[in-house]
Structure formats: C-alpha cells, structure tokens
Write a structure and sequence with these properties.
About 5% of the residues lie in helices and about 25% in strands. It has a single domain, classed as Chaperone, DNAj Protein, Chain A (Ribbon), CATH 2.10.230. Bound molecules: zinc ion (ZN) (2 copies). This is RecJ-like exonuclease.
Length: about 70
C-alpha cells in the first residue's frame, strides 16, 4: 500500500468496511472466520487513488504508479 500522506499530504480516513480494524469477521457455517479487509488490504484506512479508479492508469492502461495498482491509498 502507498501511504496517502506521501501522495496527498493528508492521512487516509478510517476504512468503513472494517471500521479501521483491517480485518472483517464473517460466518462460515458454524464458525466465525476473520479475513483481511478487501477494501483497505488490511491497512485499516483508505482513500481513493487520485490518479485512477481501478489501479490502472487511464492514459496508458498500465499499473497506476500513484497507488501501485491498489486503487486506494492507505
Ligand atoms: Zn478495511
Ligand atoms: Zn492509482
């Protein structure tokens, strides 16, 4: 993950998917399982990449250098 402070100068806000935990709990049959939050990649905070929407540069189609392909900054 790329740190939002390095790109935007401000910290990313708390991830609303995992409420800042970086992991989410889900039920798998009778078991409670925990997995890494897919929205923030386990960082617990995120902000959309200012340079792309899906991790690829809209101009070149190559991996976005701003977010290194994550589409979000941490
Ligand atoms: Zn999250
Ligand atoms: Zn990007």
């Amino acid at each position: 993950m790329v740190d939002a402070i390095d790109v935007l100068g401000v910290a990313a806000s708390e991830c609303d998917e995992c409420e800042g935990a970086g992991t989410v709990t889900f039920c798998h049959g009778p078991y409670e399982r925990t997995r890494e939050c897919h929205a923030c990649y386990g960082a617990g905070r995120r902000t959309p990449c200012p340079g792309c929407t899906d991790g690829t540069s809209p101009n070149t189609g190559e991996t976005c250098w701003t977010c290194e392909g994550f589409a979000v900054l941490s």
